[in-house]
Amino acid sequence: MISTTYFKEASELAEKYDAIQYFDRLKETEIPAKIISNLSDFAVQNRYFQLDKLSGATHSQDPVARWDREINTELVKRYFNPNTPNNILMMELSKTMGDWAMIRHHDEQDNQINNPTNFIRSNITMETKQKYGMYYCFCIIKALCELQGNMNRTLYSNAYLNEFFMIFRIEYTDAKRKKSWNPHSPYKF
Questions:
Q1: What whole-number distance in Å separates Cα of residue 37 and Cα of residue 32?
Q2: How confident is the model at residue 81 (pLDDT cuts 50, 70, 90)?
Q3: Is 108 helix (H, G, I), strand (E, B) or coil?
Q4: Pick from 63, 67, 65: which is nearest to 52 by CA?
Q5: How far apart are CA 125 and CA 20, in angstroms?
Q6: How far is residue 59's CA from residue 72's CA, in Å, rounded to a whole number?
Q7: Is the pTM here over 0.70, yes or no?
Q8: Pairing relationship of beta strands 105-106 and 112-113 according to DSSP bridges
Q9: What are phi and psi of 112, to 5 degrees?
């Protein structure tokens, strides 16, 4: 697989250019490897999924459904807390709507949601999916930015690409608390 080959090469460079602590953080779980694989496949073929679907081709898979199946499912298992006061309240509310509420919705895997309980459950897990999905993407990009910065300092290079990734200069703890990842000005960090 191309993405794992490049990631392995970047990890070897991280050892050489003293950025290994950023790459070690990516090895703590399998989620960053799944994200890299998913994004790599998206770049190569899955970005044309909708066009392929319209033309009848079947060689690509729905990137949103794949992300939800491979990454979001793991994030929810690992980080979602159903016992927060808000989540308990929302699930109780969904039980009271059982007979009179009509729901017609689809989840990320294009499965139909027809009842309030599944609709509410899908919605209360969304914050966890978004927060930790972005956090792991942040960790991948921060590791690559730190590697590139260390290479610049060691090789006395003028290619300071990290200026284009200003949003990824924050610390890991700050990244978990971020509410907005807007890369456009005015920046809201």
A1: 9
A2: very high
A3: coil
A4: 63
A5: 33
A6: 23
A7: yes
A8: antiparallel
A9: -75, 135
